[in-house]
Amino acid sequence: MTYGYARVSAADQNLERQTEQLKNFGVEPKNLFCEKKSGKDFCREEYLRMKRKLKKGDVLVIKSIDRLGRDYRGVLAEWGALTKEKEVDIVVLDMPLLDTREQHSLIGKFIADIVLQILSFVAENERANIRARQAEGIALAKARGVHMGRPKKTMPESFLNAAKLFSENKLTLTEALAATGLKRQTFLYHCRRSR
């Protein structure tokens, strides 16, 4: 049986390019597992569901090694678990050297292992670079005075008076919320902070 696995990291990314290539390879739609999850580890629902279905002699097709994962040691361990323990063949479409169907000789396995280690390292390194670029961008934005995160909510002018009357039990919580237009949790949070 031939299975395909496609993954993107974010909900706004598109899986279509990967799924089309997997279908063109011959993966039937019912054997296609897709998800929008980070590749930092292998605790991914669709990946684990697919892995449970894999049996000796099956073929797993992925577009590139970083679709499997981005953690160097994790990818190597997972590759070993699939190819050596489950005895599943893996085909990496954009890297023909990583087609274990053709690598059953000792030299073939050796070459595949070297290529896998290099590509796994590159995938993890890229993940580290992405995080570093994000941190640099955030630091630069903060230095320019750009506010990060949720916009701060400005308190209505009626807040201080309503909070005072509420703390003196002269207003009920419902009345204070109606007077300020704030939600319960927000009102109570700012009441505690203004003491």
Tell me what the structure shows.
With 195 residues, this protein is an alpha/beta fold. It has 2 domains: 2-140, Rossmann fold, CATH 3.40.50.1390; 159-193. 52% of the residues lie in helices and 10% in strands. The protein has a 4-stranded parallel β-sheet with strand order 2-1-3-4, with helices on both faces. α4 packs antiparallel against α5 (106-143) and α6 runs antiparallel to α7. The chain is elongated. The N and C termini lie far apart (67 Å). The relative contact order is 0.09. The model has no long low-confidence stretch (mean pLDDT 86).
Offer a quick outline of the entry:
The protein has helices at 16-25, 45-53, 65-68, 72-85, 106-143, 159-167, 173-180, 184-193; strands at 2-8, 32-36, 59-62, 89-92.
The rounded Rg comes to: 26 Å
Structural class: alpha/beta
The CATH topology of the largest domain turns out to be Rossmann fold
Shape: elongated
Question: Can you tell me the number of structural domains?
Answer: 2
Which superfamily, in CATH terms, is the homologous superfamily of the largest domain? Resolvase, N-terminal catalytic domain
Beta-strand residue fraction: 5-15%
Count the helices. How many?
8
Spatial order of the strands forming the largest sheet: 2-1-3-4
Calculate the mean pLDDT score and round it: 86
Question: CA-to-CA gap between the ends?
Answer: 67 Å
Number of strands: 4
N-to-C SSE string, H for helix and E for strand: EHEHEHHEHHHH
CATH uppermost class of the largest domain: Alpha Beta
